[in-house]
Structures are given as C-alpha cells and as structure tokens.
Amino acid sequence: MANIDLVDTNLANLNIIDEEEDLLLVLGEDTAVEQLYKLCLVGRVLTDSIVNFPALKNTLADLWHPLRGVTITEIEDKRILFKFYSEIDLNLVLHGLPWFFNRHLIIFHKLVEGEDPNSVPLWHTVFWVQVHNLPIGYTLKETTRQIGDFVGKFEEYDSSLVTRGVSKFMRVRVIINVRLPLKRKKRIGIGQNRFIYVLFQYERLSFFCFICGRLGHGENYCEVKLRMGNQHIEFGWDLTLRATPRRGGQVVSKWIREESNTDKWQDMEIDGERSVRKAGGEATNNNEEKEEVGPWGRSTR
Ligand SMILES: [Zn+2]
C-alpha cells in the first residue's frame, strides 16, 4: 500500500510540474510598457554645477507651455524624465532643440521601448549650423550632406540660401557629440587647384569652452587647462562660432536687396540682445553677454 501511495504522489508531482510548465500568456504588459515610453524624453543638463531642479521645471514648462501638460521628474544621476501627454507637445519640444537652462545645454533623448532612462547614453544634441563663405553654386545637397557629416551627423538642410546684409549662408541641422570639440571651419577644394575655407556658426550656441572647444564648461574648469598647469594656453575658439539670432526667427528673402555698408550692422540691437563688434583679443565666456558678436564682427587673429 505504501508503494502505491508513493506512485500517486509522484504522479501528482508530475502533474504539478506539467502545470507549472504550461505557458500562460500575459497580455497587456507590453502595451503598458509601450505607453510608459511612448511620449517620454530623458534629459540632463550638461554641467557639473548643481542644477536648481524646481527652477528648471518651471522654466521649461513656461517655455514649452504644452497644451496637455508635462510631468517632469528627477531620476538617478541628475537625469530628468519628461512625460508628455500629447504627441504634438512632444514634437514641438523636439523641433525646438536645442534647449538651455541658465545658458547650459540640456541634452534630450526620446525614449524607445526597452531603453533604461537611467542608463541610456546622453551625449548627443541637435544644432542648426550656418555654413558661411561657401561660393554660390556649391550649395548642392550632396555638398551640404558632406559638410553636415563633417560638423557632426547630417540630419537635414534648409534649402533656402539665407541672405543677411551682403553675406549669404546655408543652414544644416546636425547631431553633435558633445564630447568632441565644436568644428570651426573646413577646407573645401574647388576644381583642381583652388580651395577655400567654409566657416561654421552655431545657432543658439550658449556656454562652451574657448580652450578645448567643448560644450558644458568654461575655461576655468577645463581639463586641458588643468593638465597644462602654468603653461601659456592658446584660446582656439571664440564667440565667432555663435550665430547671431535671426530677427524674429525669419529668413530674409533672397529677393530683398540690402545696403552693402556693413558698418551699420556693427552695433545694433537684435532680438533684444546687444550685438557689439569685438575688436579682437582674447575673450572669455565670463562676459559673454557683452561680447555677443555677429558674422560682420568677426575678430581676426
Ligand atoms: Zn575646455
């Protein structure tokens, strides 16, 4: 009798194992995860300084004024999670990149399913870059793509050639790796024996280092400077890299004729910002508001 009981128990155990192994389909979880990530951005302010989170929250919400609202929460390692409730609101924010808080760049990344907001790499940002000095006729799409891929990673270009005063320039939207120095110029071959330099200006460029050309810190906190100690340091970058704000964000029509006297541009107010010609010499980020400079005020070295 004892043996029969044992057999019964074994069979019962086998049944339990079988039941345990039977696949139970769980529905709905993926949809929930997808919902969680669908309208989320993860971001961080590119600075080692302490960020006033409540101020950042209010500033960004006021800037974006999303119609359906936004939830902004601090997560691990100074990262911030932005949850939107409408695709339109989210796209407006993405379209308006780059964003800044207290002149520091905020790096954003649109979360996709499976990504961990606490560890997804946050090193890339988008900039509109103006390409100056390109001869007319060389603003072809392929040239634009090559230049964009040199500055960073080409995303798109503005097909209208922008005219300001006597200068013309082209605009490319590029993804930039913030760990690399900002590109200043590129030598371009024209035909067999001629070459020129095209010059880059970054729209809405804010705080960056004039020693190493990277975003996120000033000269006083530069690794390169720390390593060089008391040696003389060349400032390889300056404010000529910063594009002057376009008036009202409008592109001036190519059919408009402007006066050729560039001097009248030297000291004028644009978008509420004072644009003053810089007479050369070393400039630092410490007084950068006073040293706003446009393409007409390029300092020569
Ligand atoms: Zn630096």
Automatic annotation (TrEMBL):
* Source organism of this protein record: Gossypium hirsutum (Upland cotton)
**Composition bias, Basic and acidic residues:** 263-280
Domain of life, per UniProt, equals Eukaryota
Q: What name does the UniProt record give this protein?
A: CCHC-type domain-containing protein
Cross-referenced Pfam families: DUF4283 (PF14111), zf-CCHC_4 (PF14392)
Query: Region Disordered: what ranges?
Result: 263-301
**What range(s) does the Zinc knuckle CX2CX4HX4C domain occupy?**
177-223
DUF4283 domain: which residues?
35-118
Q: Which InterPro entries match?
A: At4g02000-like, DUF4283, Zn_knuckle_CX2CX4HX4C
